[in-house]
Amino acid sequence: MKTKWKKWTADYGLFFLAVICLISIWEWIVLAGAVPAFILPSPTAIWGSLVENRELLFGEHLPATLLEVLIGFGFSLAGGLLFGIGMHFSRSLEKILYPFLVISQTVPLIAISPIFILWFGYTIWSKVAVTFLIAFFPIVVSTYDGLKAGGNEYRELLRTMGANRWMIFKKIQVPMALPSILSGLKMAVVYSVTGATIGEWLGASEGLGYFSRRMSGNLQADSVFAAIFLLSLMGICLFLVISFIEKRLLKNVMRGR
């Protein structure tokens, strides 16, 4: 236990010390009147807004945003893996899809989000569509690049032993591509929070993005920062979940070898 605590403090101690210092300076600057509270509220005011609006934030808006993120990320994961593997096996499919994937990322989300609202209305699916669009790309690219890179010597060795393409894919390419795929998942799950928030900003009746937009219109900066804090915390937690899965999965793969 002591060893784990020492390792944890060695890895993250300086970070948390820096956070405490920044929050203390931030609080002092606002209380000293250097920055108006309606522009930059103090950390204690943000915390007070979290406590005051806890039933609304945790009971209605946080679950709504989390649901949009999880559904959008789930579709991105399934579609990204499917398209990445498909492009790996088919050169023709790669030539057709890859340009479309790049083009999809050149269109600003702010510009295309109203189209999703036009198609899906103010339902959850307009936010899921935005989330899917922003999270899909890193999963496809990381899957395709991970499967394509490395392992040439192992592939040639298995071919000389009579292995077919499926066996090479299963035994060599997938294990070697896992670090790249999981890195793409970590980026995508954070992008999913951004996508859901953008969708809520442009049209929603619930969610943390909707709440922050409404509070911004009322000049309640502390409530806006409270929603931003929860969005950031959600992204961090989801990132840590994928990181935990990554460590366990890679450890099992190494043991299997």
Automatic annotation (TrEMBL):
Annotated membrane topology is: Multi-pass membrane protein
Q: Where are the transmembrane segments?
A: 12-41, 61-85, 97-122, 128-147, 177-204, 224-245
Residues forming the ABC transmembrane type-1 domain are 62-246
InterPro entries tied to this protein: MetI-like (IPR000515), MetI-like_sf (IPR035906)
A Pfam family it matches: BPD_transp_1
| Alphabetical keyword list | Cell membrane, Membrane, Transmembrane, Transmembrane helix, Transport
Q: Does the keyword Cell membrane apply?
A: yes
The listed locations are:
Cell membrane
Instruction: Tell me where it mainly resides.
Output: membrane
Family (UniProt): Belongs to the binding-protein-dependent transport system permease family.
Q: Which PANTHER family would you find in this protein's record? A: ABC TRANSPORTER PERMEASE PROTEIN HI_0355-RELATED, ALKANE SULFONATE ABC TRANSPORTER-RELATED, MEMBRANE SUBUNIT
* Protein name from the UniProt record: ABC transporter permease
Species: Neobacillus kokaensis
